[in-house]
Design brief:
Two copies of one chain form a homodimer. Chain A is an alpha+beta fold. Chain A has helices at 5-11, 18-29, 35-46, 51-63, 133-137, 147-153; strands at residues 33-34, 68-70, 78-80, 88-92, 98-101, 120-131. In chain A, the strands form two sheets. Chain A has a three-stranded antiparallel beta sheet. A three-stranded mixed beta sheet of chain A has the order 5-4-6. Chain A is globular.
DNA sequence: TCCATGAATTGGACATTGTCCAATTCATGA
DNA sequence: TCATGAATTGGACAATGTCCAATTCATGGA
């Protein structure tokens, strides 16, 4: 039997505050959402939430593995609720869109370094870079190094991904 | 016959200025060097170089593929002169040390996404995360999410990597 | 040698993103 | 009921990279 979000928080040693629940729902509503957008979505839902509170909640949820924090180059931190499956991401160099792609292995680390240099490796982070279908269709070729494009790339379009079962 | 660095710049449509040559040497001297450190090293060498000039030179060199820009999560941008071999990186979660690891394939993209979602993929960026031998030896376990650790992680120790032949 | 023009200078302002501050109040949960 | 973790406020701060723009420098072709 699945736990309610509040129960999940308590199971992880966190008080189930309205703010944390709103943050969780915001992250569930938009995969790869930024902290700024979490604040905006949560504020609409519960009326007011402090910026400090948003960051505190996000950090607490990440620390307990309830959400995942990713940060493609040139992007602010993004948060997603698909955790524990070690999935990877496709990132568009033009518009910054981020979508999920399943990991062939399903757990970390899913790749073996040719030479581990004595490192205790616990994760192989993979990001596939390229051009998304929309930017390809529009014939966009603007470089990641273009400052304007980089700024735009940091604020991607929201792209639906299949919800995990 | 190999080209001198100045000739290489000219071949790539860049004027061979003292500043650009100093920046190239700084990047060659310390793999995964930050922009700040490039400025410091170059200033020692040629007496004075503007911050704007350092950023301009770095961006021009990256744009022409003469150096490569990477940015592990939680780190400022880093620059290296190993280009064209699609090598990957090992990053220490504790101290932020970054070392190279050869790509098994040697060119991009070296991995195939399970589902490319219609993206035109040109690179699979891989970063192996874990604990470096030094931090393991010291028994350090401090988390990447620890703010102090994150700040320290952004300024890693300089680690020798084999020079490319 | 001349000179067009790309490059560099100065050095602060700006932008973004995330953290820090700290006294006080809120609200969760035992 | 109440201890204590959480949230509030809202600006300050920090780090990193970009922008500004008039002026000067210096590269490299003629």
């Amino acid at each position: 039997m699945t736990l309610t979000p509040a129960e999940t928080l308590r199971r992880h040693g966190l008080q189930a505050t309205a703010q944390r629940l709103a943050v969780l729902r915001a992250v569930a509503s938009q995969p790869h959402i930024t902290a700024d957008d979490v604040a905006a979505v949560a504020a609409v839902e519960i009326g007011t939430i402090s910026r400090q509170g948003v960051y505190d909640a996000l950090n607490a949820l990440v620390q307990r593995g309830l959400i995942r924090r990713i940060q493609p180059v040139g992007s602010p931190a993004r948060y997603e609720d698909r955790v524990n499956d070690n999935h990877h991401h496709l990132v568009c160099r033009i518009c910054g869109a981020v979508v999920d792609v399943d990991c062939a292995v399903g757990s970390a680390p899913c790749l073996t370094a040719k030479d581990d240099r004595g490192y205790e490796i616990d994760e192989a982070e993979v990001a596939y870079w390229g051009r998304c279908p929309e930017c390809a269709a529009q014939g966009r070729t603007s470089s990641r190094l273009d400052p304007a494009a980089r700024r735009r790339r940091g604020a991607p379009r929201v792209v639906a991904t299949p919800t995990p079962s």
